[in-house]
Amino acid sequence: MTFNEGIRIDTSTTSSGGGMGGRGLAVGGGVGGLVVVLIALFFGIDPGSVTGGQTAQQPGAATPGFDVSQCKTGKDANDNVNCRVIATGNSVDQVWSQLLKGYSRPKLHLFTESTNTACGAATSDVGPFYCPADRTVYIDTSFYQVLQDRFGSSGGPLAQEYVIAHEYGHHVQNLLGDISKAQKGVQGATGGSVRTELQADCYAGVWAHHASTTNAPGSDTPFLKPLSDKDIADALSAAQSVGDDRIQKAATGRVNKESWTHGSAAQRQHWFTVGYQTGDARKCDTYSATDLDNG
Hints:
Its main location: membrane. It is found in: Membrane. The chain crosses the membrane at residues 25-45. Keywords: Membrane, Transmembrane, Transmembrane helix. By secondary structure, this protein is α/β, with parallel strands linked by helices. It has one domain. Helix content is 40%, strand content 7%. The protein has ten helices and six strands, in the order E-H-H-H-H-E-E-E-E-E-H-H-H-H-H-H. It has helices spanning 35-39, 47-51, 74-79, 81-99, 143-149, 157-176, 192-210, 229-241, 244-252, 265-278, and strands spanning 14-16, 107-110, 114-117, 120-123, 129-131, 136-139. The strands form two sheets. The chain has a four-stranded mixed β-sheet, covered by helices on one side. The protein has a two-stranded antiparallel sheet with strand order 3-4. It starts with 13 loop residues before the first strand and ends in a 17-residue tail after the last helix. The relative contact order is 0.16.
């Protein structure tokens, strides 16, 4: 999915920097036990297995961040992955501003290796995440290479943009008061966490449906050019690669539905497709769905 080169990128809600200062919080706990939900892990595994259940430690002084002033136009978004993340956030914001009355933009923070958030300390190991407490999407773009090398996703632009749109989908859930549902009811394959993540996938599809027809602010040009079949294949590849069943099978050789947090590869593809084909956020009611495989 290619950005129209003439569009302007708005970096006013974006910050950048890496490293942590102050006392860290356990990535797998703390903040009233809600960090697992707040971080919205893409890997579909217990973050404690990444951190060993230990408190995130200070890796040293904060490192300089990416200079976001480099991101000015759609051409920059096509050429630079950090600019692409910011421009994608701009596009998602514009789509949801049209679809959701009272929509307010989240902040976006680009980091390297580790960062502090209102939800606690986190490292790149947990993947992209959204923190409702500070209404910020956190991205370390090195995740995209991990997505390809470790999880077998394609490396196309829409595979990357899908990740951003998914995390912004959690912001929409937060605005609607739905994100807390991830902790309610049963857990596992039909639980609140899985339903919350699948809805964010569906919201990402809704964005993709409207992305090439929603004009940039003050412009008669959309942020993005029309999607190709390859673009959709890239997004579906990313959704498939982070399915709970696929990751569990690769890591342990077996699938345990009782520990699912994000849904199967097929479910993640299905709900993205629902959003993309309909463009209707009302079709993304995963909480009421009796069959998460078919909606």
